[in-house]
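Fold sample X.
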Amino acid sequence: MDATADYIREGLGRLKGLPAPVADWRVRTGEDWVGDPAVWVWPVLADEDTDFDTCAVLREQVRDEVSRLTRARTGEPLWAFVRFLWPSDIEDGA
């Protein structure tokens, strides 16, 4: 993991008041399909029964925070692709 991904992961870990408990954050940086810098975030949700609406709210919070963090670090906000994982996904080797 690169320093920017570490920085983002640590920043996400400090978020308070999330609509669902997050057990872990997985973060990767790189280029998207058109070659633009991007961030991929996989929040590992603690509750297997987290509903779609809660995930949608959390997704927007994550995107906003990644944008804020990357703007603070590099001067330019980056887009975050957010996909959710659950503990069972991790146990299955995801």
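Fold sample Y, listed below.
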Amino acid sequence: MEIKSDNQTKKELNITIKTPKGDLKQTFSKTNKVSAVINYVVQKLGLSQNGQYELRTEDNPTEALQPERTLVSYKIEDCSVLVFVDFGKAV
């Protein structure tokens, strides 16, 4: 019988999100889509819903995470750091 560690059985992730206005710390379900995390940051920072935003990993800040994919699909782990990018193109 395989014994799973807390990280393997844990369904939530504590994530730090770096933003232009400072770091945000929040817990998300592993199955949350990237778009849900972006929406959380937009709402928390009071940004325009019509803006252009991306999330990237701190390990690979040049590659945008696709909004329709889940956090777990990118193998994002507990205590990961994501980078929020605001293109400043709110309409």
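Sample Y note: Helices lie at 6-9, 34-45.
Also: DSSP finds two helices and four strands in the chain.
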